Structures are given as C-alpha cells and as structure tokens.
Amino acid sequence: MPHDSPLIALLSIGFGLAFVFGAIATRLKLSPLVGYLVAGVVIGPFTPGFTADANLAADVAEIGVILLMFGVGLHFSPKDLLSVRGVAVPVALLQILLATGLGIALAMALGWGFETGVVLGLALSVSSTVVALRSLQERRLMQTERGKLTVGWLVVEDLAMVVAMVLLPTWAHIRTQVDNGEAITVLQMQDAGLAVALTLGKVALFALIMLLAGKRVVPWLLHRVVHMGSRELFRLAVLAIALGVAYAASAVFDISVALGALFAGLIMAESELSQQAANETLPLRDAFAVLFFVSVGMLFDPMILLRNPWPLIATVVIILVFRSLISVGLLKLFGQSRETAATVTASRAQIGEFSFILAGVGLQFGLMPEAANDLILGGAIISIMVSPLVFAIADRIGRKAEILDIVQQVAPTPAPPKRVVLVGYGRVGSLIGKALDEAGAMYSVIEDREDLVELLNSRGIAVVPGNAISKDTMEKAGVARADLMFVTVPDGFEAGRIVELARTLNPNVKVYARAHSDAEVEHLRTFGADLIVSGEQEIADAMIEKATAVIPRRVARA
Known about the structure:
Elements: H1 6-27, H2 32-42, H3 54-74, H4 78-83, H5 85-109, H6 114-125, H7 129-138, H8 145-179, H9 186-226, H10 231-253, H11 257-268, H12 274-298, H13 304-307, H14 309-333, H15 338-347, H16 353-364, H17 370-400, H18 406-409, E1 419-423, H19 427-439, E2 442-447, H20 450-458, E3 462-465, H21 471-476, E4 484-487, H22 492-505, E5 510-515, H23 518-526, E6 531-534, H24 535-547
Parallel strand pairs: 1-2, 1-4, 2-3, 4-5, 5-6
Helix pairs in contact: 1-2, 1-12, 2-12, 3-7, 3-10, 3-11, 3-12, 5-6, 5-8, 5-14, 6-16, 6-17, 7-8, 8-9, 8-15, 8-16, 9-10, 9-11, 10-11, 14-15, 14-17, 15-17, 16-17, 22-23
C-alpha cells in the first residue's frame, strides 16, 4: 500500500490549514469560511508549495454538498417548499432572466459575443446552495419563513440550471451548423424541445417515486434498524440512504446529486427519527462542508487581481450590487417585508457550485473563452468571502425594519424592579416561561423559530424574532437593563457566545445556562455564566436521591 496517498495528503493538509486559517479568521471577527477559502488557495495549483489533487478535492467536496442538502431536507417537508412556490418560482425565474441580461451586457462590453454572455449570465445568476444554507444555519433561520423562501428559491434555481445544462450542448451544435452555413431543420428544434421535456419528466418521475415509494420505505427501514439496537447500524443506514438516493438521482435520472440528497432528506423527515438522523450525520456534514470551501479556494488564481482586475471588479459588482438590487426589488414587488427581502438577498449574495458546472459546459462546447471562466471563479471566491459582511449589513437593515422596540410590545406600565430575558422557547425554555408567567414576572423572549414566535405573539408575550448571537437582537430584548437571563439553547458552545455578548452589554446581569457535557460546562463557566445546569448531572442526582430510599447510605463505623 503506498504511503503517499493523495487522499490522505488532501485530508490532513486540507483540514490542518483550514483549521489554522479558520481560527485566524475567527480571531479577526470574520467568518471561518474566509479561512477555509484561503486554505484552498494555499494548497491550490496557483501558489508555491504543496499542491493537492484538484479532481480528488472536488469529488470529496461533492460529499459535503450531498450531506448538507440532505440535512436541509431533514428539517423541511414538501409542504414547506410548496407553501412558498407562489413567490419562489416567479421571483427565481425573473432574477435568472435579469441577471443573465447583465452577464450578456458585460460579455458584449468585453468583446466576447452574445453566446458567451448567456453562459456568463447564467453562471452569475445562480447562488451557491452550500454557502446560502450554511449562512442560514449559522443564524438558525432555517425554520423561519425567510429560510423556507430561500430554500425554495435555491431549489428553483437548481432545477433551472439542470435545464440549462441540457440546452447548452444543443445550442452549441446548432451554432456550429449556422457557422458552417447549414440550415436548421424543424426536426432539430423539436429534438431540443424534446430534450427539455425529457429532463423535466425525469425530475417529475424521480420526485413521484420518492414521494410515493420512498415515503413508505425509508421511515419503515429506519424503524427496523432502530429496533436492532445498534447506533452504528443506524448511522450507516442514514448515510447509505443519503448517498444512495443522491447517486441514483444522478446516475439514473440525470439530476444533480444535491437535488437527489434534498429529496432523500425530505422523505426521511416524515419519520419521527429525523432529528436523530440529523444528529448522526452532523459531524460528517460539517467536515466535508469544510472541504467544499477548500476545493473552491483551490480554483482561484490570485494573480488575476493584478493582471486585469477591472473585468473581475465588474463581475463582483454584478453579483453583490446589481443582483442584490434585483432580488430586493422583486421580493418587495411580491409583497415580502423589508426584513425578509434583506435576509433572502444576503443569503444569496454569492455564486458557487452550479456556476462552476455551467462554466465547464461552456468551455467544453466552445461557448466561452478561458478568460470568462476566470471571471466566474474569481467572482465566486470574492463573493463568498464578502458574503458574511453582506449578511451583517442585511441584519442591520432587517432590525431597523422592525416596527416597535421590545419595550413598546409590553403594556405601557412602569417596569417592575426585576426584568428577565429568556433565550429560546423550546422544551426547556417553555417550562421556564410557564414558571415566569405563574410568578407574574416581566420577561421577554428571544426566539428564531417562526412558529414559536407566532405562538408567543398570540399569547401576548413580548418576543424578539432573531438569533441571540446578534447584538441588535440582544439590545432589543432589553439585556442591557435585565437582572436575569436564561440561556436555554441546546448547543452549549453557541450558548457561550451568547453569554459573552450578554456580559458585554450588561456586566451585572445574572446568567443561567444549560449544558450537556463537562466541556460545555467549562466553556460556559469561562464566559461568565453564574449558574450552569448539566442535564446528565441533574438526572444522576435525581436518580441517586430516589435510590437512597431503597438502598440506605453506608453508616460510618464508630
């Protein structure tokens, strides 16, 4: 067995550099994604030193895309996606059309011609599904209406790009005939239409099979595996279903593996074991998602910034400025709030996977020059790097759009001497909220789940929609004036960031938090939590207390 395996080299060096640069980016208050991309540039073919196998990196990164889309499907249902079709479908298609027009204008200005402009415009019109979903997950927005609309938009874009990849080779063939002075027959045009219809038919057939057969088989299979009592087998079953369905979608139905994985997740979401399935795949999903960003960084040649920066600058402006203006305008036209428009636009302020695929098809069939491909790659890298900043701006815009401050949501009576902030209204938070209600305490809730926000509003409880990691959200919840704060989010390490921010806004507030492990307890204690409740310890103490009634304590000998 060879000891210089390209796969081992890619994983060890890629993960190592991603950790180093990701940690540096975090220390600089940047998204760790920036660090992962820089790690890819370092091990790419355009910088000196070690060069990783680009083809191998792309294959490994594809697993990350599959697991990410599978995870998204686990938290959704077909009903969620259908609920936003009235906005997602027309807005996505109009945005593709308008963005493609911008790409054509750029190509014509650079002297590349109309055909190059179409490919370039299509590549600039489709967002990175991985980056968009990662941004939503970091802010815990996946279950909100904004998150559902974003996912619906991304799905429509992906389907449109599947059709585009079918049409581009046909178009290239017709163009060659025109250049050679040959006539285009009606039969050839019919063949092109048949190819599109066949592609859409395959997608529909795949969806039908998954919704009818998969909806029955997958949950049944998971329950059988659970009854075997092996967590390892359950994890293998989940991975086998996710990867198997994604591969079948690509190999049998000519659908992208990302869409196949999404459907696999949607079907598995019908089982009550979906949350356990999500937890089992989370570590692998995060690891391979890192490799996706590393593989994207490997494609970027930094020297393009020096050789001819102006076309690249124009490309980035189209992605970040013009496309964002189009997105906001269309969403407002379809009756969406300012906050929704800001969030959805920010999550899509970059290009990615399908852009690279379209560029490859364009190069393969001679529809665009290599220089246009450089613009697509450079635009993707820069837009992904800037994406966290765009989201920060969108958060500020969205917060300003809120009609009333949290104080105005409460009855205009003098505030009692004690004020409480409750972060999270899930299983633990709702029990604390009930106790606060019974005590007549004045409190506000920070919650990012749309259904819980609506529930709290219906009960007349002051609630701030959003993520507690956001400073604006914490300020609106009144943390600076609070006497006590409960942090009930299940992720202890995320809770640590919340505690740290609370201490910054109000050094005197008492903070009570929950944890699931000794490491989380220590993490929360480091950031200044006053009381940390560990689930395992509390359960053990309760069981020991009950046991003493049956087994008396050992009496010390005199």
